[in-house]
Every structure is written in C-alpha cells, then in structure tokens.
Amino acid sequence: MSNLQLTWSEAELLANDDVAEPLVAGGVRCHGGFGDDGRYVSPRAKNRVPATEAWQQSHRELFDADILDAPIELWPEAFPNVAQTKHLLREGIPGPTISALTRIGTVEGFGSMIRAVNVEQMQRNFAESIDGTAIAHLQSGLFEAHARDEAGWEEEAGHRQMWFAARDLAFENPVTEDMTQTMLVRMGIVPAGGKPPSPEEVRRNAEAVRRFPDLDLSLEMMVRRMVGLLFIEVSAFHTFAWAEEVLSDTELLAGDARAAELVRFIRADETPHVEYLRTALTEMRDRTFVGESGATVSGAQVIGTLWDTALEQSLGANRESFLRTAMGEVEHALASHPRRDDILDGFRALGSEGEWAVSP
User: Fold this and answer.
1) Over 70: is that where the pLDDT of 196 sits?
2) Rounded to 5 degrees, what angle do the CA atoms 104, 40, 97 make?
3) Which of 64, 123, 291, 305 could form an S-S bond across to 214 if both were Cys, CB 3.0 to 4.6 Å?
C-alpha cells in the first residue's frame, strides 16, 4: 500500500489556497481568486483535491477496481443550442437566455441542500471498514465544501451569485429581484408560494421511491441524492460549453466577455464535486451494505440500481420537463412579437426534430 494520507479533518477539507488577488464580479467578492501567476484558484481545493486523489488511488490498490464514470456523452447538448441562442439574440429576443442563466444560478444554489444530509453512524451501514475513505468524510467536510461552493459562504459569493453576475454583465442588469422570482415561478423552478416541502413531505416522497426497504432510509436518500448530483454536475458541462461560447460573443452581448470568464471559473470549481461523488459511490459499490435487520446486500446491487434509476430519470422525464420549460420560455418571449412565426421557424431549423415532440 502506498504511503497516502487518507484521514483529513473538516477544517483541512475546507481549507483554501492562498491567493494574490480576490475574484470580484459585478462588485461582489466571490470565492476563489488568482495566484501570483494570474491563474484562477478554485476555493477549498488546497486539501480536498489531493485527498480525493489519495482515496481514489487507495481504492484502486485495495479493490483492483476502476472509479465509476458518467461520461458526458450520455447527455444531449444544451437546449437551446448555441446557434439557436444566437439566432434569438440577433432577433432582439434576449429573454430565453436571461431565463436560462437565472435558472442555472438558482439550481446551483439548491446544491447547498447537500449539507442537510445526515446519516447517523455511517460505519454501521457497511460490513467492511470505511476508515480512510471518501465515505467517511462526506459529512465531515465534503458535503459542506460542496454546499459552500454552490451557495457561497459568509461574505464570499458562490456559484449561484456568479451565474447571476455573468447574466448581469452580459445583459447589463436585465432583471430585478421581483422579476427573477416571477421568472422562476413561471419555469416551475420554485413554487408559487415560495415554501419548500416540509420534512414530512420529503420523507413521504422518499418512501414512495424507496428501492431497498431494509436499508436505513436516510442512507438510501443520501445515495440517491449523490447519484442525482453527479449526473447534474456531469451533464452541466454541456451547459458550461454553451454559456462560454454564447457569452464570449462581444458583438451580441455586453461585458467584454467577462461573463464567459466567470463561467470558466465555475467550471473549474465543479471538477472536485464530480471527483468526490464518483469516488464515494465507487467505494460504496465495492463494499457490502448492512440493512437494519442485519441482512446484507451487495454494494454493486445498491449502487447499480440507484444509478440506473437516476440515469433513466435524467435522460427521460427530467430531460422532457427541461425541454418543455426551455421551449416555454421561447414561446413566452415571442408571444406578442409581430414576426413570431418567422423567428420560430428559424429557431427550429437550427435544432433537432426530437426537441419539438415535447414543446408546449
């Protein structure tokens, strides 16, 4: 076994590298910063990145197994695509792009809910030791680091605010807070009443989709959320590519492409999320789960089942819902436009036929 440091404190996993200059976007101090060489430095990467690399190496040596992968090619490109987005912008229709950036920032902020996951006595759920693994550090640093990256921490803004800053730079502060709320309600991103589901509702929903009744419900909920987050993080790289290309167009948008630069910084920050999630899920896959009755079930069965279920949901119902929402924003923006049909025909000509099967 290699001489690897496999045990880290929460403070170590939340530690930042020193930066020579902070990142400020739209007058807001964001996390991360720039080193002496001018390169962007992601937040909370000082120890989190080498720790994850060590857990991966350790797992390969102990189990002779590869780390789980969710290749980006599994997911379709962003919709509207770059050509469709630029078509709308050239026609003076910025609304759908503004909505998309608002939706992305809001969904990023939801990532902070990972810190609410709580599984008591994690070790009792596995037959094998979890000492020196990413599993053992999920609730003592990894989830918290993920949450801070997405929603910010104390005076530093996170990805939610960075996406909003990118939107505001490119479109010169296009919306007020009230308009943003209205937009999110229209897209179904937040409920009209603004109230999140109660703990009782969350539990009922979890019970309804439970696949392993003998496992601790909180554990299955945690694994399900981790798989879902991994798929969101990986598929989002299509979104990053779309946003970087669109926001780099200085002929169509304001801000001298600074918005695209912000997106590149966010993309860099997301890589540690993908790595720790797939590492911990791999460690679970190659262990044995212990149910509340004492019965065991292979990790391959648990992770495989929840993985396949989440993938089907991501590529099926979730994709269809997203297409309806995105197309709904295009229809909303063109509702009273005198050239609605011509613009819509041009928009559709730049996309794929399957996108219209679920459009409003």
Assistant:
1) no
2) 25
3) 291
Task: Identify whether the C-beta of residue 167 lies closer than 8 Å to the C-beta of residue 246.
Answer: no
Classify residue 197 by its DSSP letter: P
State the CB neighbour count (10 A cutoff) for residue 119.
18
Contact 150, 113 (CB under 8 A): no
| Cα 205 from Cα 210, distance rounded (Å) | 9
pLDDT at 314: 94
85 near 343, Cβ under 8 Å? no
CA distance 32 to 91: 37
Angstrom distance (rounded) from CA 88 to CA 171: 14
CA distance 306 to 296: 17
The 10s digit of each residue's pLDDT in 89-116 is 999 999 999 999 999 998 888 888 899 8
- In sequence order, what are the beta bridge partners of 41? 33
Q: How far are the Cα atoms of 14, 57, 153, 238 from residue 298, in angstroms, in the given order?
A: 32, 22, 38, 33
What is the C-alpha separation between 21 and 236, in angstroms, rounded?
28
Q: In what order do the strands lie in the sheet with 40-41?
A: 21-25, 28-34, 40-41
Burial class (CB in 10 A: 0-12, 13-18, 19+), 299: buried
CA–CA distance, 132 with 322 (Å, rounded to integer): 39
User: Residue 195 — very low, low, confident or very high, per pLDDT cuts 50/70/90?
Assistant: low
| CB-CB contact of 210 with 217 (8 Å) | yes
Terminal alpha carbon distance of the chain: 57
Half-sphere exposure of 290 (CA within 13 A, CB side): 11
- Residue 1 one-letter amino acid: M
The residue written with tokens 């167009």 in the block is 249
Show the tokens assigned to 271.
């890589």
What is the model's pTM?
0.92
Q: Fill in the DSSP letter of residue 32.
A: E
Q: Are 301 and 309 in contact (CB under 8 A)?
A: no
